[in-house]
Specification:
Length: 234
């Protein structure tokens, strides 16, 4: 490393900075935002829990929840360690894997996605949304974080449609718990982004770091919700 340069300066100069700055100050270190970086270990813990819960499932899509949690955690960890636009795109790609998994599984329940084509749909959509993220971020002032909000709305709409199609046979307790946890996590992340709760010098307590931990926990009841459809998934 050149004296006077930080580990991620080259990548940041080449690809530019991310489109958002969370509260935690950016350090000249391999983990540029320590709290926001290491809090992503929660996703790896959840991935291990999901692996243990789903390892006996016949359906690959249910077993894949563990991998989805892993990719969300890895993308976010690398992004917050580096704070660059290039790795921010990887962070979004990881989130797309999880949210689009839910959209595609709801599509299977609605009968518009063939169960055997689940992963073809999933990876195609992840690719499309990742490319769109780059194009939107580079050509407009639109905050690309809104894409996650859009996907969450699609999850809710397709869930409502699939539940109606199933004629009231669907249990929603775990799904509601997952939503409640995501809503709580969003409060902490929003307080961080708006600087309502912000201490840049703290590398332990950060609102966005708490978002990571609670958001990771929300994946467990979400998986439990989809497990009830196991016989119809692939």
């Amino acid at each position: 490393m050149v004296v006077g340069m930080c580990p991620w300066d080259g990548l940041r100069a080449w690809g530019g900075p991310p489109n958002v700055k969370w509260c935690e100050e950016t350090l000249c270190a391999w983990a540029a935002e320590p709290a926001n970086t290491w809090s992503n270990l929660a996703y790896f813990v959840v991935a291990a829990v999901l692996w243990a819960l789903a390892r006996g499932e016949r359906e690959r899509s249910l077993r894949f929840f563990a991998q989805a949690a892993f990719w969300v955690g890895l993308g976010s960890l690398v992004y917050h360690a580096s704070v660059t636009f290039v790795t921010q795109v990887g962070d979004f790609a990881g989130m797309y894997v999880f949210f689009l998994l839910l959209v595609v599984l709801n599509g299977v329940r609605l009968g518009v996605v063939p169960a055997q084509a689940t992963f073809a749909w999933l990876w195609s959509l992840v690719g499309v949304f990742t490319v769109l993220t780059v194009l939107i971020a580079r050509t407009t002032a639109f905050p690309v974080q809104g894409i996650i909000g859009f996907l969450l709305a699609v999850v809710l709409l397709t869930e409502a449609g699939a539940s109606r199609r199933e004629g009231g046979a669907t249990g929603h307790g775990p799904f509601i718990l997952g939503l409640a946890l995501m809503a709580l996590a969003s409060v902490f992340s929003g307080a961080d982004l708006s600087r309502l709760w912000c201490d840049p010098s703290s590398h332990f307590w950060q609102g966005h770091a708490i978002w990571h931990v609670i958001g990771a926990a929300a994946m467990i009841p979400t998986y439990l919700h989809y497990r009830q459809f196991g016989g119809r998934l692939a």
